[in-house]
Fold this protein.
Amino acid sequence: MCRYVLQDVVQRYRESRTGRSVEALQVPRLDVKAGEILAVVGHNGSGKSTLLETMAFLHKPSAGTILLDGRDVWAEKASLAARRRCPILLQRAVLFKTTVRKNVAYGLRMRGLGRREAYRRAEAVLRLVRLGPLAHRGHRELSGGERRRVALARLLALEPEILLLDEPTAHVDHANEQLIEELIRDLHTRTDMTVVLASHNARQAMALADRVVTLVDGQLVFGTLDNFFSGTLEKGREGYTFRDETGLVLPLLPEMIADQDETLSTSPARWEIAIDASRLEVLPRGEEDASTAGVPPPTLFGQIESVRQQQESCRLRVRLVGGQRLRVDVAISEYRRLGLNLGATVGLRPAEGAIRLLLRTPATPDPP
Amino acid sequence: MEMLLDALRNAVQLIFTLDPDVFEYAGRSLLIASVATLIAGVLGIPLGVLIAESEFRGKRAVVTVLNTLLALPTVVVGLLVYTFLSRTGPLGPLQLLFTVPGIIVGEVLLILPIVIAFTLAAVARTDRDVRKTALALGASRRQALWTVFCESRFGVAAAIIAAFGRVVSEVGVATILGGNVDRLTRTMTTAIVLNVDMGNFALGLALGIVLLTISLSINVLFQYIQGGGQE
């Protein structure tokens, strides 16, 4: 069942300097299924925050409809009720000038809950995010990571069915980043809540999300994408090699590229690519050794970490040797034929047109 | 110098012997300042929040006018209100001229721009994301506005204190609209002017010391509240 359906959603704003109308977001169609984690990736300024804030019903779209559980929220003038169902962790969420406990209880108090009960629930959530002892601290007495966790606790106290997270680990250190990711994963597993998260961090999107969509200059591109990586290209004797920040090394052959108009080059500083989950050939370990001449060998190796059966296929999550995760869709018959199972080691080979080149970041970064 | 020391000695004596005149004028001044500040606060704070939080054509012009009114000479306000309250003026039948309520009307008009402009500045200075955060956590528009106000509370309190300080030390409006009538409308400032004119420096100085003490207390409170805002 679809929790959200965004249909032809456009968000425009007027530039104060020129008075010109600028399109900040254009989403022809986006479905979010109940219980899934959807990641929205893209560069700074690509429209991720606008999309999430629109999904949180903070802004009425300039055009298009947003259905929440099949109901057109704006047409039914039910934005307050919808906002209360879909709380959002803003990229620049501020803590109110009061104690941590009062901050966490804020949303509950706004919903009319009594002070005592709100504080009791706030304290329980603070323990969950490992900030229990800080309940009575002032908002200024927290580190950046603690502030972000308090901001997240404020949402979790509301026990939402839908959670919108705009850069949940922005400006936090590695330890807090891991803690927040762990919290999101645990909560999703325990409560099966629907999560939409925006991130410019491809690793995070891949680690947390069931599905990844990409925004480029406010436009949702290619519908939905799996296996999103961000890295650089290197030119060797036999063509180009893609390397991402986590150490993934992928030889890029011209036939693997989906859009043949795109030409590979090392000149942009960074490339972002997506590998189509349904176009990854799976070879059980051992079989690739017996590959005959003329058949290219697999380019990636890993272990099947999870298997989820879909209608006519299985979705595998493969943990690569370097720790990265890839999603792979295999027909059920093929899964059986290859004798795959949980924990099996496999080789992977991107088939023809499996890789899409998404974004190229210029060498000189844009001014902030 | 000796005259000044004599006057100072007499002034301290007047204060410590609880001179009825000193305390009558001080009490009246405080009453006028309190009531005027209360009325200006009730009117000015919501207006300041509303102007800060709304977007409308001509907002910049409104802010410019408010900032200009901050420097309004007290005698001009007094004169303007006088024309309304005088017997031949549109509000003449209310018979407010040379009464304490008459002074309060003038003082409210004098400090209303201060309360609005300072509140507006305090709310505008509050992080724009406060309102968005409140809405994101499920607050209604009205609850979000209240949250913004609460987050600006130190700035708003400073506006109230500044307004109170302006009234309590003001002389133009009190003279023109109060007429400096003994036992009726004489305030600390008008009494100081009168006593200095009469050569009664001791009483003038005693009132001056009380006025300075009040101003000092207001400033200490102002600093304390501002300190709270920075915590």
